[in-house]
Structures are given as structure tokens and as C-alpha cells.
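Posting this for the archive.
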Amino acid sequence: MAIGDFVGKFGSFGTGDGQFYIPQGLDADENYIYNFDDTVPNSSKKIQIFNVNSPYNFIDKKVVDGSDFPQANYKGLKVDANYMYLFNGYVRIYNKISPYTFIGKSAQQILGTINFNGLDIDNSYIYQTIGAIGAPAYGTIYIINKNSPFNTISTFTITSDINYLAACCAVDDNYIYVTENEPGIDARVKIFDKNSPYSLIGSFGSFGTGDGQFDLAVGIEVDDLYIYISDLRYSTARSNRIQYFSKTSPYTFIGKWGTTGTGNGQFSHPTYISIKNDLLYVTDRDNYRIQIFNSNPAFIPGARGGGGSGGGASGKRLLHRDLQRRHRNQ
């Protein structure tokens, strides 16, 4: 299978178990897929848990009190070995084992007219993006201790232009990757050093519908080789797709998949994305479902270290070089 090949899907519109009203942040581990469903505003909302294997059966849910949730477009969710981290203004932490006990929440809350709320985690910290029209922290990354009392240890501003909003972020061992937009005018990805003073390392992207351009860059994930971006409709351009890029400067466009629609591999407002187990999970918000795609390149005939439909790390590196060579020769 190639990157972007359709693997599966689940979900439908509704408020019942396993259905979605407004599906938002998602993540996965070796056993389960987790998604936050934003039900009727100011009522109880829920984290739903599904089997990671087809047919992706509904397993359980954690109902959370939404009475103090600020109204926002996007609400991030991540999991680690022990906890679920839900962000909408606060970062709320829940035990990963039923009954999913509330552990605590961060001290910082930011409100605004429109929020683009995302987060990622590593072994020590929570990385929280704030992009809010009408709020002072329109483009800020908060770095929060993962241990109680979940205090903010550092912040930095990704832009000095109040018209730009941070959307989501992803982290690896060395860098923080952030999607940033001036809606309808500009869109890009910025890469920062993970250590203070969080220097800007590079950026790429612009507003548009061409390869390497974005209508509205929202979800972002990284693996060993690539940066993946969900590019959703904002303007009349109506992009609904996933694009992926080389992880090294100049962050070359590698490929894309997705068009507007309801079929397999089509999207209506793809927002959050997550990579686990060589699979890329996408919240297909306005189709009320989660779609799943391959993120491990297909075996190249003659490539050493690959085989079958996987290819492993060696196969990924060889394919990456092959794709870059083809791109340069176009």
C-alpha cells in the first residue's frame, strides 16, 4: 500500500454511542482510537473510545462536563500510556482506565471569539497552541508540565501579527511544528527549536489550492520522514485534502490525497490528524466520521530492507529519496 491509501472508516451523525455530533480531536494507541465529540453546546460532551481494529467497534465513553468549555471551533485530544489530555481553553487530564477519573487541569485558560485549539505531548510536557480572535494570546505556544499541578513552564509567541492564528502543533525530539493562518489570506507551517528561546528554524506554505499551498492549514502530525497537514475548506477554494512534505529543509512537497465529497478518501472539513501504528487517522468533521489511511510507503521492487505492504524504516527512506528524485525531475 502507498501513503494515503484508504484503510477504513467509522461513524455517522447522531448523539448515540459511536455516533458523532461534531467530531473533534483524536488520537490512537496500540489498542484503541480516541475521539472527542462536541455535542450540544454547554451540555455534557464525551470522549469516545473505539477498537483500533476493523470494524472499529464502540467500546466506551467518558462524559465530561462542558458547562465551562469556551465556544470554539477546534478542541484537541492526545493520549499517552496512562492519561487522556483534552484541550479547550484548559488542558483537562483524565485517567485512561475506566471510570476515566478526572486528574486535574492546567491553570491557564484563554477565551476568544474563534479558537483554534491544538496540543501535542512528549514524555515530559504538554504543548498547547492558542489562536483566538479577541484574545491576547492569538498566536502562543504554552509548554505545560505533565505532572501536577500542571503548571506552565514557558510560553513563546509564534507571530507578532494579530491577524495570524496558531492552529495545531506537533512535536518530535527536536522541533515544534505549528500550523498558522490568516484566514482567507495566508496559510503556512512554522518550525521552531524545541529548546528555549524556541528559535524559528524554518517555514513553508502559502494560501492557495496548488501543491504545497493551503486553504486553511489545521491538523499537523509528523513521523520519521514527513510532515502531514490537513488542508480544509475556508474560502471559495474549497480544499479538502491531506498533504505531506519532507521533514528537512526546504520541506519539499511530496504528495497529497483527498477531494471534497462523502466517498472513501474524500473529506468535508478534515481537521485533526494522528499517526499511530503506521496509520494516519483523520477527523472528517462534516461527514461525521473518522477515516483511516496508510502512512507507511509501499515496498519498492529491489529496495533492501522492505517487503510486503510495509517496507519498514529502510523502505521508507528509500521511497523518500525516490520521491524526491522524481519531484526534482518533474
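The chain is about 5% helix and 45% strand. The longest strand covers residues 175-182.
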